[in-house]
Amino acid sequence: MKDLQVIQMGARARKIKASLQTIMLLFTLSSTDRRLSAQQETPPPPGPPRSVQFPKPVEKTLSNGLRVIVASRPESVPLVTAMLMIKTGAEADPPELSGLADMTANLLAKGTTTRSAPEIAEAIEALGGSLDAGARWDSSTISINVLSSRLPQAMEILSDVVRHPVFKEEEIERQRRQTLDGLQVALRQPGSLARFVASRVLFGDAPYAHPISGTLETVQRIDRDAIVRFHRTYYRPDNAVLVIGGRISPEGAFALAERFFGDWARPAQPLTSSTSSARLPAKSRIVVIDKPDAGQAAVILVRAGIKRTDADYFRGLVANSVLGGGFSSRLNQEIRIRRGLSYGASSALDVRRDVGPFIASAQTRNETADEVAALMITELERLATDNLPDAELTPRKAALIGNFARTIETTGGLVAQVASLALYGLRLDEINDYIRNIQAITADDVQRFTRERLNASEANIVIVGNARSFLDDLKKRFPNVEVIKEDELDLNSGALRRSQAQTGKEAGP
Amino acid sequence: MRFVKLPFSLLLSMMLSYQAFSEPMPRRNDLETDNVPKIDYRLRTLANGLRVVSVEDHSSPTVAIQVWYHVGSKDDPEGRSGFAHLFEHMMFKSTKNMKDEMMDRLTEDVGGFNNAFTADDVTVYFEVVPSNYLETLLWAEADRLASLNVNDESFRSEREVVKEEFMQSYVAPPYGKLNLLIEQRSFMVHPYRRPGIGNIEELNAATLEDVRRFHATYYRPDNATLVVVGDFDPKQLDAWVDKYFGRIPKPAAPLPRVTAREPERSGERRYIEHAPNVPLPAIAVTYLVPPQRSDDAFALRVAEAVLAEGESSRLYQRLVYERQLAQFINANADLREDHGLFVLRVILASGKDPAEAERALLAEIEKMRSAPVANAELEKAKNQLLADLLRERETNNGKALAIGEATVLLGDPNRVNTDIARLQAVSAADVQRVMQRYFTDKNRVIIHYLAESTNAQTEGKR
């Protein structure tokens, strides 16, 4: 919710964190326009490329079962990120208490047995640091980013908030109100509302279906007992990974891990593994949430994607890059550059422990929502059938590799990447295989992946906007459109619609 | 902003460049002034007036290239609000030697990236590429400075993109319109009163002829600064710069400059504004403060951090944590070239009274005026500001932004090295002095931003 609020208020400039420190330089310039006339100049060609090396993470497991990973970058600026990751996240929320994992993580730094919430904020900020906590899918994380020299003090605080939170009633109420206010704002944004709906459409009543922060109804129900139980069950050293990255030596980092987490006791009873996810709804849906005051329509195409550990992962990454990854992807070419229908269109293959969503999204004028939805489907179909020339594929692979290099350029990005590998039980030095893995993908791989794993016939469409402006045209393109009024929407179930009785009951005060 | 990844309102409140930092790192990792090594830059000025600032850094095989044009939204032609930003988008269309979107072929397609942003005072184009592409990109940047050759179809289609940007950033989000109102209500005379994104009517009125004229007027070597940071050989860089930029002539016509100045505010102004789709009321309070080059800039930055950086800040503690009147607070010392604007924003918690939240906010301002901040609080604020700057300078592109800002807006690239000491020197008395001087009742504008449904008869100005 914090991020969301910053985006809404906008004007506080986010810093541009965007250069690429390390990148493979094997790509030749393939796009020089041969039709240039004689008087025109062609760009000078590149010089010889230089090679690159990403950090090699090292690891060790403490006697209590805590896995500690260090990704050291000795020559970087003196910053360190330390992240404590619990390998359980919002997927473990009981359906009637969705938001529980996120609420638990958010409350960690709101008071321990020895410090109040303001004292924790004061302590970390005096170090010039920041502390971020929250649940996501498959994990809950709390991380700090500080100057290398202040890492010992920061680690002491990190250990305290993970191991000794008190979950005071007063703080729970405060957090509950903030979460509800944040949700109220999110529900008014066509973009975030469309994402909430898309998850329900794809996952029905299975895990991964609810908003991570919960719903207006479930957040009301979360009580201290549930939070304490969640913390006791999942926050244990043998269900956690500590990742430290940036300018710090591995020895120094391991010593700090031992000092602050070495005596974190492992409970005697083994952790019960989380339940596997339920079956997904089989039928595709075209869902319109009618929001008459929407300034723009948010359009989403969503369908099942793949697991992170799928053997097709790298094929999927490249397929997504061609379709909707970055400025020059097909979706942005067709929707923004060619037709001016949107400020930006993109897609994402969101991989998780279990099958995650594949999502294409754009915001557009209410009047053109149907056209954008149709373009998304057309482009997905085209990727499965039409020829993909190397002149297009090679640059999309280069863009992917460049993005990856930029992602792990900052200490925060490096730590997040390593943590994700650890979460899904993958080899940590996959970082250094990334370029090779991407380069091995062929046009045939992309086409086959799209046909077999992203088939457009199983795609769902979600549009949040002023239905009057596009509904007639949408119905011409799609026969079975479900229209749900904004005030009838129920994010607690796959049906998405409040029952009549429910609507009547809650329309009261 | 050309693409969604960065907010349009980068406003150049990208923090003042207080702090110098470059490799090799000091042995002690302390952020003390004498331990922070200089950014070792080179400044050249070509015969045609182009300034070139470069920093060699071979720690990664990449290079960041930026071209800063000293023209921004305040230079939007009359009746063409939003034009400087619309024009920024056109700079990615065809030139004499490049076709539409060729910049993407030269950057994204080889693993790099590009983008641009338009602020009140400057327009900045930037790209990061593998360092063996430096010559290619210098050629391309020089090419779009020398010539722009947009066709009508591209112009019209890109204008639609900018209109969607307007809708996505300012109409669809619940508090988007508030950001426009802050500009409109805070300035009476200076062109800062026109939001950089413009409005649909004036965007529709823009023509291809406007594009040509704007390029001829402002896109000239003596109004540009090239910044190059990363992996390159200095002699080679100079030769390429001379070859591709040196041949661009300097026009004889003088550069037009905005001369309007905002008069001092003579009394509090209040506005009640309504918008659809606003879930919780919001309040914005603005004070007119000195421009970016003022000596008071440092103390204003510290005041900003004390008030609102992090959960231990005063406004968060009082308004969000203790009294639970607000769900969001923010302070922004938005110091621009001609005038600064100190903006405070509050989104209320549900069920709270805007009048009460306003009183609580103003009480915190009053406290900063009536008593000096505690030493620990002052040190915390400085640590936060310095750490923020360090994070910004993790990358070549971030470093280049700091250098560009120092050169173009502060008039001296060396400010990236000297400002840190001045920040460290800010005392509690300095903070109190700027609070007393600028945060007066008669120097404030107060906006209450409410849902349309609660609209009574009072609309707009009062």
Question: How are the elements arranged and paired?
Answer:
The complex is a heterodimer of chains A (509) and B (462).
Chain A: H1 2-9, E1 58-61, E2 67-72, E3 79-86, H2 100-107, H3 117-126, E4 130-135, E5 140-147, H4 151-163, H5 169-187, H6 190-203, H7 216-221, H8 224-234, E6 240-246, H9 250-261, E7 286-290, E8 297-304, H10 313-324, H11 330-338, E9 342-349, E10 357-364, H12 369-385, H13 390-407, H14 411-423, H15 434-439, H16 443-453, E11 460-465, H17 471-477, E12 481-485, H18 500-506
Helix pairs in contact in A: 2-8, 4-9, 10-13, 10-16, 11-12, 12-16, 12-17
Chain B: E1 42-45, E2 51-56, E3 62-69, H1 83-90, H2 102-106, E4 113-118, E5 123-130, H3 134-146, H4 152-171, H5 176-186, H6 200-205, H7 208-218, E6 224-230, H8 234-244, E7 269-275, E8 282-289, H9 297-308, H10 314-322, E9 326-335, E10 340-348, H11 354-370, H12 375-392, H13 396-408, H14 415-424, H15 428-438, E11 444-451, E12 460-461
Parallel strand pairs in B: 2-6, 7-11
Antiparallel strand pairs in B: 1-2, 3-5, 3-6, 4-5, 7-12, 8-10, 8-11, 9-10
Would you list the SSEs of chain A in sequence order as H and E? Answer: HEEEHHEEHHHHHEHEEHHEEHHHHHEHEH
What is the number of domains of chain A? 2
CATH class label of the largest domain in chain A:
Alpha Beta
What is the tally of beta strands of chain A? Answer: 12
Major β-sheet annotation of chain B = 6 strands, mixed
Fill in the CATH topology of the largest domain in chain A: Cytochrome Bc1 Complex, Chain A, domain 1
Largest interface: A-B, 106 and 120 residues
Succession of helices and strands of chain B? EEEHHEEHHHHHEHEEHHEEHHHHHEE
Nearest-integer average pLDDT of chain A: 89
CATH architecture of the largest domain in chain A: 2-Layer Sandwich
Which stretches of chain B are low in confidence, meaning pLDDT under 50 for 5 or more residues running? 4-34, 454-462
The gyration radius over C-alpha positions of chain A equals 24 Å
Instruction: Report the CATH C-level class of the largest domain in chain B.
Output: Alpha Beta
What is the spatial order of strands in the main beta sheet of chain B? 1-2-6-3-5-4
User: What would the principal axes of the Cα set say about the shape of chain B?
Assistant: globular
Structural class determined from secondary elements of chain B: alpha+beta
Q: Class by helix and strand content of chain A?
A: alpha+beta
GO molecular function, one term (chain B): metallopeptidase activity
Domain Peptidase M16 C-terminal (chain B): 206-385
Signal peptide (chain B): 1-22
Keywords (chain B): Hydrolase, Metalloprotease, Protease, Signal, Zinc
